[in-house]
């Protein structure tokens, strides 16, 4: 009975020993290194259980394994026994389980973790976080793109866990978040020591189209292109280069966004303070064309002082052309100061004002009545435009083309490019107009012919044609027509056929029409006038003398 009791006790103690001390598979157990051979560490995990672990599992990436006989280590028991009767254990899996516990706590506390970049993968890098491998995206390596990550490899440094999933074994970390946080602290410290208006030294870090970023010792400030110099700067690279040390003034500090605006020109004297004294109105100066636009050209009078020559002030004659066809960039030109707006920092300049008004010059050199010669530049429905000296045009109206033809007919005789002569009839310098007359070149034949003829004058004309309605006559080369009813006082004598071509006939002028260039003539009017004169000279209507007696006496007196 005693022997049976002792056997039962031994069996119970043995079972209890197995239940209490034998570790469960899939857990982390402690063991002791009892030997190192063939690149492996042999570890005793208790109860006659031994396992083998590759030495590389005891080394951090890029380092030699740190393990020796007698060391106590934690390993992961994957299986209690394999085909060779050995325990299947892993140091790496133990480290991973330990690391995951530690990382989950750090992630929950939003704390930093230490790790080392040890490999490059698509889209980023791999990081060892003390047993757990995390992914570091390329965009999270630094605050700026990193071209060479070599110096960062194997270097222990802090990281921020952005995302982790233990079930899937995914961890995403960021180095950039740590740098930005440190940078923000540094920026706050530097900005706290800066004041608006303070002059400081900085190093040009980057140049863009709109300005340059200057490092002020841990914090960057923006130096806008408009604050680099008082003069126009087309691109910051004209006056700055990367790595250059420059002195700048702090213009504005935004405490909330930590943005700093800088200026260089503010440390120089403003040239506009002396503009009014150096460039009085109507004064002429030499400047350099710096920029050309559709509406004019900018001319630099001195560094920092520019004026605008509006397109309307560029040329007396070229009205509808682009300013680029009159001046070119970098060209030196003479300009006149037309207006200064100190408040708006604007100077209005004139280019054409430095040259004489060509219409005034023409008026002086070609007074009215002067004959000029020029090329027909354009033909319109109301006349011709003729090119004149000084690159200006004069206009010949339809009514000034010919004495004898209608303007609409006379203009058909001209073509663009024809060289014509004309006389200056009027110059209006204010309206920039010159009136010309082609028909006036040879003078006014009508005016010359009838210069001494007035209404009521008796002149002698020559018959040039006989027609049913009257006769055509000529006086000093000017043609006129006498109607049948004006051929005689006596109706029976109002017959055109009683005249012969070549006859000389005395007629009375009834009208002088300069506009239509016609003389109104009448034989009948002459006879009535003569009769009236005879009555007044030789008798009256109540003297008892007959008209025949009066006319007879008048003829006798003439004899």
Automatic annotation (TrEMBL):
GO BP: translation
Domain S1 motif: 26-92, 110-176, 197-265, 282-352, 369-439, 456-524
Gene3D superfamilies referenced in this protein's UniProt entry, alphabetically: Nucleic acid-binding proteins
Gene Ontology CC: cytosolic small ribosomal subunit
InterPro entries hit by this protein: NA-bd_OB-fold, Ribos_protein_bS1-like, Ribosomal_bS1, Ribosomal_protein_S1-like, S1_domain
Keywords per UniProt: Repeat, Ribonucleoprotein, Ribosomal protein, RNA-binding
Pfam families registered for this protein in UniProt: S1
GO MF entries: mRNA binding; structural constituent of ribosome
UniProt family annotation: Belongs to the bacterial ribosomal protein bS1 family.
Function: Binds mRNA; thus facilitating recognition of the initiation point. It is needed to translate mRNA with a short Shine-Dalgarno (SD) purine-rich sequence.
Protein's UniProt name: 30S ribosomal protein S1
Organism: Pseudooceanicola pacificus
High-level lineage: Bacteria, Pseudomonadati, Pseudomonadota, Alphaproteobacteria, Rhodobacterales
Gene designation: rpsA
């Amino acid at each position: 009975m005693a022997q049976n009791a002792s056997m039962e006790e031994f069996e119970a103690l043995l079972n209890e020993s197995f239940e209490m001390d034998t570790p469960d598979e899939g857990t982390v157990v402690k063991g002791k290194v009892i030997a190192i051979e063939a690149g492996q560490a042999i570890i005793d995990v208790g109860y006659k259980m031994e396992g083998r672990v590759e030495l590389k599992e005891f080394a951090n990436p890029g380092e030699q394994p740190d393990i020796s006989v007698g060391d106590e280590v934690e390993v992961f028991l994957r299986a209690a026994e394999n085909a060779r009767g050995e325990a299947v254990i892993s140091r790496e899996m133990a480290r991973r389980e330990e690391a995951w516990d530690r990382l989950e706590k750090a992630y929950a506390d939003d704390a930093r973790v230490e790790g080392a970049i040890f490999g490059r993968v698509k889209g980023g890098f791999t990081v060892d976080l003390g047993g757990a491998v995390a992914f570091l995206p390329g965009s999270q390596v630094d605050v700026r793109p990193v071209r060479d990550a070599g110096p960062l490899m194997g270097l222990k440094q802090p990281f921020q866990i952005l995302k982790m999933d233990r079930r899937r074994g995914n961890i995403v970390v960021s180095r950039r978040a740590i740098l930005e946080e440190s940078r923000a602290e540094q920026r706050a410290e530097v900005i706290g020591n800066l004041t608006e208006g303070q002059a400081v030294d900085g190093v040009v870090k980057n140049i863009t189209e709109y300005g340059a970023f200057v490092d002020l010792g841990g914090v960057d400030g923006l130096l806008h292109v408009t604050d680099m110099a008082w003069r126009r700067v087309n691109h910051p690279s004209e006056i700055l280069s990367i790595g250059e040390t420059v002195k700048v003034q702090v213009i504005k500090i935004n405490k909330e966004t930590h943005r700093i605006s800088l200026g260089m020109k503010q440390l120089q004297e403003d040239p506009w303070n002396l503009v009014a004294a150096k460039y009085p109105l109507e004064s002429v100066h030499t400047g350099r064309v710096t920029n050309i636009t559709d509406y004019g050209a900018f001319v630099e009078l001195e560094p920092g002082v520019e004026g605008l020559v509006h397109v309307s002030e560029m040329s007396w004659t070229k009205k509808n052309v682009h300013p680029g066809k009159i001046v070119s960039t970098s060209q030196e030109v003479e300009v006149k100061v037309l207006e200064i707006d100190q408040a708006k920092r604007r100077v209005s300049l004139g280019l054409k004002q430095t040259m004489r008004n060509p219409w005034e010059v023409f008026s002086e050199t070609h007074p009215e009545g002067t004959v000029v010669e020029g090329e027909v530049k354009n033909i319109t429905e109301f006349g011709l435009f003729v090119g004149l000296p000084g690159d200006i045009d004069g206009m010949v109206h339809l009514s000034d083309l010919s004495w004898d033809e209608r303007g609409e007919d006379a203009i058909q005789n001209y073509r663009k490019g024809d060289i014509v002569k004309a006389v200056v009839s009027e110059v209006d310098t204010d309206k920039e107009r010159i009136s010309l007359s082609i028909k006036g070149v040879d003078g006014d034949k009508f005016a010359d012919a009838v210069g001494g003829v007035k209404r009521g004058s008796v002149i002698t004309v020559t018959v040039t044609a006989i027609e049913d309605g009257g006769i055509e006559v000529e006086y000093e080369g000017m043609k006129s027509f006498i109607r049948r009813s004006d051929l005689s006082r006596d109706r029976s004598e109002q017959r055109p056929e009683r005249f012969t071509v070549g006859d000389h006939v005395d007629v009375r002028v009834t009208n002088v029409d300069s506009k239509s260039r016609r003389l109104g003539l009448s034989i009948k009017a002459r006879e009535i006038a003569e009769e009236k004169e005879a009555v007044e000279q030789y008798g009256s209507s109540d003297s008892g003398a007959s008209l025949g007696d009066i006319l007879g006496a008048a003829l006798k007196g003439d004899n």
